[in-house]
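Aim 2 progress update. The chain analyzed this quarter is reproduced below.
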Amino acid sequence: MKLIIIFLLSLLLSCEKDQSYKYVIPHEVSETVVSLNPNQQAVKTISFDAPTHWISQPPSNMVLASFSIIKQNQSASLTILKFPGQTGGLIQNVNRWLNQLSLYPVQLSDLNQFVTNGTTANYKFQRVEITNEQKQKSMIVFIIRDKNMSWFFKMVGDTNLINNEDSTFLNFMNSVVLP
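Predicted structure tokens:
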């Protein structure tokens, strides 16, 4: 027993109080949202400035970040997703999104009615815009392909709100910084 006490005392006395060591142990972590300040968010390796009226929601399985937007009894959601490679291709994604808005699939030759190309402050993107006029639901998706990854920024909800948030969404996209 005396030996244990002497050993512990020697350990305590041999340590300097002002010195500390930081160890970084690599491990797999799920992508999580970390708040930097009220308007700036970071998701592991992506950063962006979100408008203050977008309400941050907890991420889920494949969703890196999520926001809800509510104005005058209308709602929309924005999700950020990342996948390796081309993720099925543009026509398959557009047809999946058309289906989510209860619309019929299209042929490759019809993509130009939904897809435009552009650039943000930092990246080239494809922008997909879909509206179901009968249900008054819309979707805008920005797709950025960078370093063999496909990033999807998808806003879906009431058509009037989506239209009103369009320029805010583009400003948000201009703030995005990928790894």
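The chain is about 25% helix and 40% strand. Confidence is low (pLDDT under 50) at residues 1-39. These observations will guide the mutagenesis experiments scheduled for the next reporting period.
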